[in-house]
Amino acid sequence: MTSDSYPVYKVKSHMALPDPHMPPDRFHHAIFVETSKDGSGTLYHVTGDVTSANGMSYESRESPDPAQLEGFHSKELLGYTGSDGHPQQWNALLASLPTPPQQKASNPKNQGRVEPFKEKLGDYEYVFYADGEERKPLWKCTEWIEWHAIPALWKHGLIRSSDQ
Questions:
Q1: N or C terminus of the chain: which is more exposed, having fewer CB within 10 Å?
Q2: What's the short name of a Pfam family annotated to this entry (predicted)?
Q3: Average pLDDT, the chain
Q4: Is 77 left (phi over 0), alpha (psi -120 to 50) or beta?
Q5: Per the domain annotation, does 119 fall within a domain?
């Protein structure tokens, strides 16, 4: 039995609220699998923020063609996936990947300003960076897509380079 092939894209969109602790001109990153002739399909990404206690969460949802959505920036073809493994195998794999944890909190010693922390000791207990101390880079949706999701999808054969 043969399966249909669906194009897989990396999608970038403008963020509604840029993070002051991240480099400027960052975009929200997601993976989009186009499953219908009208350009609609399934969007895979992490949502939320790195200030909330649970950090960011994995999400997949039906979506129109991202190019039709407000805030759209770009769509880059990554490869193709077979309809036989989509969306079940995709969700199983992507839901198993680590997601960006909480990495920022309100610092009472700095007038409650929300800032990155070095270590979380417990609920509402953090070790913050000292002024001038080198900070570990934050990781969010971009890093989840680039470091975790795309490599895992290639490794498990869920993305391939041709539509054959």
A1: N
A2: DUF6540
A3: 95
A4: beta
A5: yes
Decide if pLDDT at 163 tops 70: no
Range of the domain at 114: 104-137
User: Is 28 inside a domain boundary?
Assistant: yes
List, for residues 86-128, the tens digit of each pLDDT value: 999 999 999 999 999 999 999 999 999 999 999 999 988 999 9
93: nearest Cα among 62, 58, 120: 58
> Which two structure tokens, joined as six digits, stand for 49?
């923020």
Pairing of strands 41-48, 72-82: unpaired
pLDDT score of 32 more than 50: yes
Residue 132 maps to a domain? yes
In this structure, are residues 19 and 114 in contact, taking their beta carbons and an 8 Å threshold? no
What is the tally of structural domains in the chain? 2
Indicate if 57 and 118 belong to the same structural domain.
Answer: no
Residue 77 neighbours by CB under 8 Å, 6+ apart = 7, 8, 9
Average pLDDT over residues 143-159: 98
